[in-house]
Design brief:
This protein has 80 residues and is mainly α. It is 57% helix and 0% strand. The protein is built from 5 helices and no strands. Keywords: Cytoplasm, Cytoskeleton, Membrane, Repeat.
Length: 80
């Protein structure tokens, strides 16, 4: 019974990790990346504060830029 309970907890832990949508900037700059994170869209996992710190602009300003500028900013911020 205890073994079954431990397995259930483990499944819950795995699901929690896979469903996580916000990560610290340090977690996204480290390798390997957390499980389930899309390496091409690291900026979407940041808090607004970390986003502005890493890319030096708001999400609204970033989203208004052409894709090539977004990519260059992500490279500069270490998010590519």
């Amino acid at each position: 019974d205890t073994e079954v309970s431990n397995q259930i907890t483990l499944v819950e832990d795995v699901l929690a990790k896979l469903c996580k949508t916000i990560y610290l900037l340090a977690d996204l700059l480290a390798r390997p990346l957390p499980e389930g994170v899309d390496p091409l869209k690291l900026e979407i996992y940041l808090t607004d504060e970390d986003f502005e710190f890493a890319l030096d602009m708001t999400r609204k300003e970033y989203n208004a830029l052409p894709s090539w500028k977004q990519v260059n900013l992500k490279k500069t911020g270490g998010l590519f």
